[in-house]
Amino acid sequence: DESGDLLIREMFDFIYGVDSTLTVDLNENHTIFFDGGLDGATVRHAETKLSNNLSPGIWEVGLDIEAVDYSVTSDRLVGYLQVFEPDQEVRVYELVGGESTQTKSEVRLMDGQKLKITGVRQVQFKPNEK
After folding, report:
1. Which phi and psi (to 5°) does residue 86 adopt?
2. Is the Cβ–Cβ distance between 123 and 115 less than 8 Å?
3. If you placed Cys at 119, which of 23, 79, 114, 123 could pair as Cys (CB 3.0 to 4.6 Å)?
């Protein structure tokens, strides 16, 4: 970012990392670094739409996903969901996926929070029944 802080780091790899995409909110003060082993990379505009399945990246509650209570699961061995909000400690959820073992976390999302997803191909957010 404009302060030189690393906002997100992800490994592109079909076995241990992200398949092919990373979604983030960029501005003219951000710098993108690609390091090692890539034959090429493309940066393009992504349309904003509400979804309950989010890929690696940084997302905003209310813009990319609805603000409700969810059960959260993943498709990969180990990944992370981080929930950011102003003046609060970051909440970190370790997501373990797979056929034999899979975690399910409960999370309450509120408008304006930011979500950072890393290490998984996709996180599924299932709205909790009322």
Report:
1. -55, 140
2. no
3. 79
